[in-house]
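Crash report, auto-generated. Payload:
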Amino acid sequence: MSGNGNLNAEDPESITVPLISGNNRCAFNNSSQDWRSRGSVHVFQYIFMKWFSCFLVGIIVGLIGFFNNLAVENIAGVKFVITSNMMLQQRYWLAFAVFFSYNLALTLFASTITALVAPAAAGSGIPEVKAYLNGVDAPGIFSLRTLIVKIVGSISAVSSSSNWKGRAHDRRDLITCGSAAGIAVSFRSPVGGLLFALEEMASWWRGALLWRAFFTTAVIAIVLRALIDFCLSGKCGLFGTGGLIMFDVYSSNMSYHLEDVPPVLVLAFVGGILGSIYNFILTKVLRIYNLINEKGIIYKVLLACSISIFTSFLLFGLPWLASCRPCPSDASEACPTLEGRYGVVVPAGLFVPVIVTGATYGRFVGMLVGSHTNLHHGLYAVLGAASLLGGTMRMTVSLCVIILELTNNLLLLPLIMLVLLVSKTTADTFNSNIYDLIMKAKGFPYLEAHAEPYMRQLTVSDVVTGPLQLFNGIEKVGNIVHVLRSTGHNGFPFSSEDFAKRGSGNGDKIEDIELTEEEMEMYIDLHPFTNASPYTVVETMSLAKALILFRQVGLRHLLVIPTMSSRSPVVGILTRHDFIPEHIFSLHPMLVSSRWKRLRFRLPPSSK
Amino acid sequence: MSGNGNLNAEDPESITVPLISGNNRCAFNNSSQDWRSRGSVHVFQYIFMKWFSCFLVGIIVGLIGFFNNLAVENIAGVKFVITSNMMLQQRYWLAFAVFFSYNLALTLFASTITALVAPAAAGSGIPEVKAYLNGVDAPGIFSLRTLIVKIVGSISAVSSSSNWKGRAHDRRDLITCGSAAGIAVSFRSPVGGLLFALEEMASWWRGALLWRAFFTTAVIAIVLRALIDFCLSGKCGLFGTGGLIMFDVYSSNMSYHLEDVPPVLVLAFVGGILGSIYNFILTKVLRIYNLINEKGIIYKVLLACSISIFTSFLLFGLPWLASCRPCPSDASEACPTLEGRYGVVVPAGLFVPVIVTGATYGRFVGMLVGSHTNLHHGLYAVLGAASLLGGTMRMTVSLCVIILELTNNLLLLPLIMLVLLVSKTTADTFNSNIYDLIMKAKGFPYLEAHAEPYMRQLTVSDVVTGPLQLFNGIEKVGNIVHVLRSTGHNGFPFSSEDFAKRGSGNGDKIEDIELTEEEMEMYIDLHPFTNASPYTVVETMSLAKALILFRQVGLRHLLVIPTMSSRSPVVGILTRHDFIPEHIFSLHPMLVSSRWKRLRFRLPPSSK
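Recovered output after restart:
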């Protein structure tokens, strides 16, 4: 009997090939196979496993993040100490040689490992997770990256009775929790990480998900706090002595007034423009990188190394470009020294470059404004980082909380909100946020939450394509195998133990199932594996309306039924593919012009 | 032509009585009447008005909240100063008389006004907003309370061309933004208010809504900051000189270690139990109050006054119960004096009693633990408030952020997350959160996001009730009027300018429309007003699955169609009422026992 939740009403991945034959109305009481009716022990076990998975994700991500952090701070710290000592001895060329080869060796190691072992691990990872949570389940979208989640998932599945298999639903929830955990540990920002996962990544919100993600990030916060507490005793090498707050900019005498607002507005506006330019350039650069990377592993490694060499020259040369200033002797805080924390922040990817660049930009604006403002340069740096983050990431609440958690300064909140508001609005008029641009560049069929206006002019029958393969309630195995082999679709009514997808996503192929001639001639009763009540739309429904249903309920297949009784009980099946603008435009080319006419007036876009 | 967005695919309130007649497939191109196709000027105007409404809500709620705050702090402050001065002169009985009559006079004024002018304004208001945002659109659910929103809505609607009418969708978004603004201004916690509205109140999440609510609360933050800046110069009477942070508990030398965790865990656990007891008692007390209030206006006023008298005695008597302690002379901070800020915090309702009680409870635990902990009593008070909030409100992220914004102490974050986690989990095993309990007591048909297990054992045809009224495509006016008058439903296909609901919700009744005998004999073509593509489910679909669709897409009506072609093209229409457990149990009494069997195992509930 099926245990895979295929007949589960909540499961958005349930298979929806109908068997509308004469006896379908009484064929199958689908609730009898549902996990929820299996008895209270199983229900308790299921709920326990869901929470235990989140707990494990919190612990494991917290530990990995911390040790990652520890390793990076020590590796980078050693480099910095060696190089600095050489420079203090005036041995600049030797210092550069050490700096240069240290960087190159690390890059060579990382890029070779990535290229050989796990090509999918390259890049930010956030676009992949976002696409997955939207329902894009392309094979290989994860590999090394979701290792943790998969390990946890396997542990959970094995440690419970073998009956428990994560439903698609649960898998997605766990990955949302895992991504919240990842951001939380990267920035030591538990609430910010949680909000980031919900605002930027998750396509489906649910109260239960929020609560579970909160649980995960709370575990992270507690684990991190305990480990940092441990490190305070000096057992972690060069690892910083700071607590959860990375950049503590608290100053109780900080105040600002109305006259400080105009320069901040200008800073935010320009930051938004810079952010959209950054997004534009990044996608172009990524396109060039992709072209190079496609040529082979050697090219991949060479590309990474040349970037490393370029960066080494730039970093080492920087102090010669701008003259160093002596530390002001009357400063209230101690000047940064070799013993102090150095700014190698761990979370690689898109965040740190933007924060560092933005802070530099903000400080520059602060210096330009000079004595015309009450705000300290350091606060301008925070606002500059906020404006560039707003201009590239285009998030609001989560960025706000991340910045607050990074800087521990709630007094800045109104200014940060103002800056994010202006920079996001400005940047949104030019292009999309960085993750959406990368997703588009990678070709993920991401499904937007809102319908484009031209979708209102189409009905579902305008986009649904055939021909449809229908099975009888009791069908010859040979026929089924033939259809499965000759079509590319995957919405098939198999979920028995023999046919079920194993693992999490990259299931077995029909070619892997070996059947004898004798078996091919046998008949199989498909009723037990059939979804007797799929989600349906009438063929006259507007495409926009069907998209809302498809996206809100999180479906993978949507049946189109005729308004009038006709020969076939089903007109066709809508999949994600049918809602993708490129597909629709290929079917209805005349829509392209009307689309652009509309887009010109989307100045303040109504979606994130 | 219809301008009310009735045919709009995104509009969850669109009317769904179908006209499945022979020519319905080509009867009506519904996108031609859609506002989006009206031309770019209108689209721009529409988008502008949506944002301008949010801006106005931010400004107006910010101003009202601030002046409310100002008034309360001055009125309560004057009382406090007069009473204290009398007590310093040892004139205790006179002081009590002033205190007593001051309180009684204010209560008398407030309760009389409420009882006479706006009975719906009584109470917290949050349950009403939550119910409304869930789709409960009972007449009179708002009155004085949504005045602001309505004023803003009207201003917007009038100032734009008369074509713009807020769709149900937009109205709901604006109310979400307004409620975020309300919480934000009450606690001077912009991000917390926003998250509260999203976590607790909104039934439908959308990226666009988050961004618009962020805009509103950012306006609030800026308005509040400017007004408080103005008050710093001492022009606001007794209004405090504090900034946005209400209770600044920042202390940079605060630290805590592993041994501090066990007492905090106990505090959180007991706080959770206390919270659920609080919820239980509150619902009982509210029931008694309701019984008294039903007897008439005099009883209402008498009830309020006796509560005021009781409270006056309690407050005034408190210092005699516990002896006052002298202010420690070595304290780093100044002792509170008459000149200092006094703790009359504005937002009445459920929040403040819980915060104050919880802080007292936490301080008490802190004193019990005594020297066994590194944590300061003040921090225990914050954690105690968090535990009781978690135990009554059962929110996570928003409470976390509100507490952080109130106290300006991010170092406490891991402990606060831990406390919320434990107290919410503990309290959830006993009863629901306070707002849900009040909603239930008020009888709002709130629709949960998740399906109960017994709903999987039912199909939609098990709950849908008839008989169904069908109209022909071209129908006699008299017939339509007869049906409208003889049924209680409101899902009718009228949306022309003549029949349209005016204002926001409390529309005209059929009885108010006067038609002559001649008009009654005429025929009307209903096709232009018809929703040609309603959302549908097949009659064999499980009720759980239909609920997911109904709730996720935010429908008001859902058509049930037969699996086999039969005499009628539609089996029935599902409304909110059909998904309410009480209704289902009345139809299928045998489910009640199985329901409780399941509930026993809901220990860690999977929903908020």
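Post-recovery validation: The mean pLDDT of chain B is 72.
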